[in-house]
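Holo model, flavin-adenine dinucleotide. Inputs:
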Amino acid sequence: MSNNSHEVDIAIIGGGNAGLTLAAQLAAQKCPPHTVVIEPQTPDQRDCSWGLWAQAPQAEQLSHSTKGRWRRWQLIDHHSRVTHSSDQYSYISLSSADYLRHCTTQLRQPVTQVQESVSALKPEQDRTRVVTDQNQYSAKTVYDSRPPKIVGNGLQQHFLGWHIYTQQPLEDADIATLMDFRVDQSRGLHFIYALPFSDRHLLVESTMISATIESKDWYRQAIEGWLHQNNIQAAEIISEEIGVIPMDTLATDKQTRQPLIAPIGAASGAVRRSSGYAFQHIQQQVSQLAAGIEQGNRSVPTPISSRLTTMDKIFNGVLISRPDLAVSLYMRMAKALNGDQFSRFMLGKATIGDWLRVIAAMPKGAFLNQLVKQLTHA
Ligand SMILES: Cc1cc2nc3c(=O)[nH]c(=O)nc-3n(C[C@H](O)[C@H](O)[C@H](O)COP(=O)(O)OP(=O)(O)OC[C@H]3O[C@@H](n4cnc5c(N)ncnc54)[C@H](O)[C@@H]3O)c2cc1C
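Output:
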């Protein structure tokens, strides 16, 4: 270990979606602040698929890391199938490694990245000392994107997925399956997420929303069962990916001032509690933050409005208290909306009309009970 000490203006801890997007945007400014991104892993070591809804201009901007793009998607349960199509939005799947590599190519002096792991933060008079396994950085401002703490017993989205080549060409290779609930529901809300990247290449994930992580074999069996049920034979399993997305985190938007240490990204509460989607909220937060820094304002914008977080908390409360309704909540929401409305809803950009449609479709008793519970615990 060396005691090399470097003075920087901004230290960004974690070079994931939030950290590297912020660094790339700072590097594009006229007078970038002296910034270091501290990240221990390479993009390939943490490669996974990031799915999101995007309009055409953004989808074009992200083409460097896009693995698949669909204008149609579906949700299925034992009774029905809802298919959405949209002219305005597409559902796209990114390679996180390609995205992060692209951000890295945008960095230029004085914005740099180091492959180190942060072990301690030591606030000093008007700066913070960021201690890594190799160096120390004295920074005026620290943005910390290390993953948030998981609340004990909180809901998590956890999954295991296979990239496979299929023996036969897939039917409907132009449609993304966001949720197919025709799988074992005995351990919590469970669905299959299936993205056809071509007519022979499929990503198929067994995904749970519950408080308990299952054994890897449990998800694998669910995938095998679903493939069998849909008459899809795997010629080759190319790779396996696993993930856990906390949906009830101890994210805090408290920021200490002078020196400023603030969480960004998922650590700041950017994961949508009802769906686990976070990519677009992080992009928006980081763009606003970069613009603020250029104007001399370093405080971090809230990634998701408090109104939306409250609605999501109520939704999750119903998921927990009425597991018997869980599948129908998602199906009712999908049925109530068309493709554009659904995309807006998932992006956290629903209009009042979209909200009214969703509220009208929900079982009123369960939601009212939950609302009362939230109000009495507030
Ligand atoms: C497997 C998975 C799949 C997901 N899929 C989607 C999706 O499809 N759509 C969507 O919208 N959201 C998705 N999410 C949620 C969210 O978009 C991602 O988690 C996103 O990467 C969050 O970005 P972030 O920058 O906040 O955190 P991260 O991207 O997790 O970045 C945090 C970084 O901190 C680094 N770090 C950790 N410890 C240290 C340390 N001691 N010192 C320095 N650095 C450290 C980590 O290596 C990591 O790179 C997914 C999450 C996971 C985990």
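The mean pLDDT is 92. The longest helix spans residues 279-294.
Archived with the compound record.
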